[in-house]
Amino acid sequence: MSNNTQDNGSNVPAEMHDDPFRKTCLVPYVDAAKVPAAVQDKLKVLPFRRNIFYLLGHSHGLFPHLCGVIGGCFDGKTRKIPLLDWQLIVLRTATVLQAQYEYDVNLPVAEVYGMPQEKIDAMGCSAEDVRDGKGPWTERDRLILRIVDEQLATYTNEPQTVKDALKVLTTEDLVEVLIILGTYALIARVIRSLKIDDDPEIPGLKDMLKKAVTSD
Predict the structure, then answer these.
(1) Ordered alpha helix ranges (H), 33-170
(2) Are 164 and 174 in contact (CB under 8 A)?
(3) Which run of H or of E encompasses 178?
(4) Torsion angle of alpha carbons 34, 37, 43, 44, nearest 10°?
(5) Is 204 left (phi over 0), alpha (psi -120 to 50) or beta?
(6) Four-CA torsion 163, 154, 176, 209, nearest 10 degrees
(7) Percent share of the chain, pLDDT over 70
(8) Which of 4, 102, 120, 136 shows a CA-CA span of 20 to 30 A to 206?
(9) Which of 1, 211, 203, 188 minimizes the C-alpha distance to 101?
């Protein structure tokens, strides 16, 4: 490659950029003015900036569709499982995969919609504790956590876990749990791989979340 080839910014250390949002991320965030209209629309899906959208937006073709799945989770009329089931999946996934950014941007949603503090505090408990009946979890919580933990450890579930889950969840619920888990595991891997920056503080965030995210 010629030494005169212009660098697009992806190989330049983050500290050499003038992007105020970028300190740690290994690639630039998209320029909203230079992406296709379909991507621009999805960057505005929330009334505040989230760096993850400006990172995923590099995939011009796939990001709008992925954002459709995420948006479906936000919408109580589209999402079938209860909102706090969704947040249990996301927070457990983020905790197990050590995706702090994913945890931090979802925790306010869980708090706004009333996830008990004892459950938040227990999110990092072991899979063994979940199976052994320890902690503040309901039977439904435990089955969802078992599904999440097994999937993240082995990419599959034990037949008995599925059988047990179907005593509490409908088939539609179970499939939605797996879709949500897979979606947020994907996002967690992008977050960790590319070293996303924390979002800046958002004044009035919880009030805006009440409007952007609908309950059951």
Answers:
(1) 37-43, 51-56, 63-74, 83-96, 100-112, 117-121, 127-131, 139-154, 159-165
(2) no
(3) helix 171-194
(4) 120
(5) left
(6) 130
(7) 92
(8) 136
(9) 188
**The predicted structure's pLDDT at residue 185:** 98
Which residue bears the tokens 């993850």?
52
Type of residue at 121: D
**Rounded to 5°, angle at Cα 153 from 152 and 159:** 90
Q: What is the pLDDT of residues 17-53, one digit of tens each?
A: 689 999 999 999 999 999 999 999 999 989 999 999 9
Cα-based distances in Å from 34 to 38, 40, 48, 76, 110: 11, 9, 19, 33, 34
**143-193 per-position pLDDT tens digit:** 999 999 999 999 999 999 999 999 999 999 999 999 999 999 999 999 999
Length of the chain: 216
Spatial contact of 57 and 36, defined as CB atoms under 8 Å apart = no
